[in-house]
Amino acid sequence: MNYGDQMKFVARDGSTVQRFLLVRSAGATSSGYKLYGYDPEENARNFLEDFGIDVHPNHHAEIQAAKRKIRFYAGPNADISTHGS
Fold first, then answer.
1. Largest CA-CA distance found in the chain, in angstroms, rounded
2. Cβ contacts of 16 within 8 Å, gap of 6 or more
3. How far apart are CA 51 and CA 24, in angstroms?
4. Which residue, among 9, 7, 6, has the nearest Cα to 74 in the 3D structure?
5. Residues 6+ apart with CB under 8 A from 67
């Protein structure tokens, strides 16, 4: 991901569906990535956390790190997938 790029995720656990938005951030006070809860109908974001990736960021590492963070919010049994860009 380049600075400013976004990636959407969907977490499903039974009938519960939650949406998340990962944004590559460039701010001096940021660790590199911001994770938001996301409501596409309202186009609303709810900031959840700012985090970094310990390895050289590549697409696979970014997805895996985001899924680990999302699992904390969505629960251990949630099925997490990317949803568009």
1. 39
2. none
3. 10
4. 9
5. 9, 80
Beta strands in 1-85 (DSSP E): 6-13, 16-24, 33-39, 44-51, 79-82
How many CB atoms lie under 10 A from the CB of residue 69? 19
Share of the chain above pLDDT 70, in %: 92
Residues in CB range of 61: below 8 A, 6 or more apart? 53, 55
State the pTM of this model: 0.85
Nearest to 10 by CA among 74, 65, 83: 83
Question: What pLDDT is stored for residue 28 in this prediction?
Answer: 53
pLDDT in tens, 30-53: 678 999 999 988 889 999 999 888
Return d(Cα 11, Cα 22) in angstroms, integer.
Answer: 13
User: Which amino acid, 61?
Assistant: A
